[in-house]
Amino acid sequence: MLRSIFRMIYPICCPSCGNARLETDGFICAHCSVHLLKTNFHRWTKNPVLERFMGRIKLVSATSFLYFIKGGITQKLMFDLKYRGRKAIGLNLGEIYGRDLMKSTFADTMDLIIPVPLHEDKFKKRGYNQSERFAEGLSHSMNKRVDLNTLMRITSSETQTRKTRFARWKNVSEIFAINPINDLAGKHILLVDDVITTGATLEAAARELYKIPDIKISIATIACA
Questions:
Q1: Of 176, 51, 77, nearest to 130 (Cα)?
Q2: In sequence order, what are the residues at sequence separation of 6 or more whose Cβ sits closer than 8 angstroms to the Cβ of residue 70?
Q3: pLDDT 10s digit of each residue in the chain, 225 long?
Q4: Domain tally for the chain?
Q5: From its phi and psi, is residue 153 left (phi > 0), alpha (psi between -120 and 50) or beta?
Q6: Do 30 and 78 fall within a single domain?
Q7: 176-178 and 151-153 as β-strands: parallel, antiparallel, unpaired?
Q8: In a 10 Å sphere around its CB, with 0-12 CB exposed, 13-18 middle and 19+ buried, how is residue 43 labelled?
Q9: Residues 211, 101 share a domain
Q10: Could you say which DSSP state residue 13 is in?
């Protein structure tokens, strides 16, 4: 009874709409959960995310959890995750999507997960890496380890917002490096990021990872613009 009274005074709020949610709901309220626009790309042999990289880099598979639509629930969640310190959103979305991926053949041969890293300066300013939080959530559901030591961001890039496709590629073309001390030869890696637009950042990261002998790469993001 005391718990119920406490929740009446201090309700648990949905991070998407801000309304009170039940403890039996997920991390967002039932209404917002129903209106999440899932892509289900992980069930497709070919999908728009995989096709975005055709002719650029070779991937085993690629997927995104949600559609990113301006003014929609996904945009609100991503903004709060990235700029308002609500890092639990990344963890929760990763756990949900990881469970979906494990119900398919998408992750059958994957060995580990690597999030796209932030530069040290941006990490200190923000306090966390939103892609890393997503990777942690995926790891919990998929029982795959997260590698934070192999892929390094050596240059701080400008924001990609409002840049053209070529400008985005140029902005991130030489910002990553590989730690030569690694055990990833012959491994199948799931490279993860928050939102994919042109894919320039993921392409640059994958090109560095492909310097490791016999490596295989798949990609997963929270959202697809």
A1: 77
A2: none
A3: 555 554 555 556 777 776 776 655 567 777 777 778 999 999 998 999 999 999 999 999 999 999 999 999 999 999 999 999 999 999 999 999 999 999 999 999 999 999 999 988 888 888 999 999 999 999 999 999 999 999 999 886 655 455 555 555 555 667 899 999 999 999 999 999 999 999 999 999 999 999 999 999 999 999 998
A4: 2
A5: beta
A6: no
A7: antiparallel
A8: middle
A9: yes
A10: B
Contact 114, 188 (CB under 8 A): no
- Domain hosting 13: range is 1-35
Q: How far is CA 205 from CA 4, 29, 115, 126, 135, in A?
A: 48, 35, 10, 21, 15
Do 62 and 89 sit in the same domain of this protein? yes
Tokens 């998407």 appear where? 16
**Domain shared by 13 and 57, yes or no:** no
pTM of the model as a whole? 0.86
DSSP 38: B
Q: Show the tokens assigned to 176.
A: 């990553």
How many helices (H) does the chain have, and how many strands (E)? 9, 7
Q: How far is it, in rounded angstroms, from Cα 106 to Cα 210?
A: 20
Q: Which two tokens stand for residue 220?
A: 């997963």
Pair 23, 93 in one domain: no
